[in-house]
Amino acid sequence: MKTNLSQVLSKGAASATGSFNILDLDMAMSIIDCAEALNTPVIIGIASRHFNAVRAPVLVPSVLKAIESSNVPVALHLDHAGPNQIEMIKQALDLGFSSIMIDGSLLPLEENIEVTAKVVELSHRYNASVEGEIGGIAGEEGVADTEQDSPDYIPYTNPLEAQQFVKATRVDALAIAVGTAHGIYSSEPHINFDVIKEIQSMVSTPLVMHGATGVSDASIQKAVSNGIRKINYFSGLLQTAMDEVRAYDSKGNDFLQFKHSMQEQWRKLIAEQIKLYAKLPENMYKQA
Q1: Residues annotated catalytic, as ranges
Q2: CATH code, residues 5-284
Q3: Spans of all domains in the chain
Q4: pTM here?
Q5: Which of 5, 63, 81, 222 can bridge 85 by disulfide, Cβ–Cβ 3.0-4.6 Å?
C-alpha cells in the first residue's frame, strides 16, 4: 500500500517532517538516501508548475520505484495545484501520487472551501491525502531567484477561518500564512509564532509552513515547537545546485563526477534540514 501524507507527518511533540520538491530522479534519490540514513519519514514533492516540465508521466514511475524500495515511509506529493488544475490532480492520482496540495488561498473563503472539499473527496478515493491552504503565502513557488523583502506586510491566516476551513473540507494538512514566503529572502522573515500556536490549539489537523529556505534555525525550531508539523523546502536545493554548477565550471568535462558531487551537496543540505525539523542528534548522520 502506498504511503500518504497523513502516514508520514510527525505526530510527536516538537517534531516536523521535511517536504522537499524535486526536478529529477537525482534529487529524489538524495532525499531518500538521507531519510534512510536518518531512519525518518520524508515527503518528495513535485510542484504543479514543474509537472509538465519534468515530464511527470515518465519521471514518476522511477520515483515510485525508488519509494517502494525504501526502508522508510516516503510520500509523493503534488505541490500547489491550483483550482484550475483539477485535471492535473486527477492525472497525478492516476500516476500514483499519495498526496495532493490544492491551493485555493487566493479565492474567497467559501470558494476555497468548495474547491478544496471536492479535491478531498476525489483524493480520498485513491487513499491519497490532501493539504489545503488558507491565507496567501507570498512569492512564487519553485522560483529561487525571487528576493522577498522581509514579509511583515503579509496578512496572517485568521485562526477562526482556519478552524472553519478544516471542519468544512476535512483536509489532512493545512498550510498557513505565518510570515514566510516562497523564494529567497532579502532579510530574515518576521514569523508570527502566536498565530501558529493559536491555530494549533483550535484544529487537530497538522499545520504546514512553506518557504523555509533562509529562515533561521531558531525560528524553525520555535515554529515546530508551536505546532508546525510539515515544512516545505526547495529554493535552497536550487541554490546549492547552481553553486555547484558554478564551482565545477573549470574542473573539466566529467559529467558523471559532477552529478555525484552535486548529489553529495544535496544530501548534506537535506540531512541538515531533516535533523533540524525532527530535532535529531547532530551525530546521527555523517555520510549518506
Answers
A1: 79
A2: 3.20.20.70
A3: 5-284
A4: 0.90
A5: 81
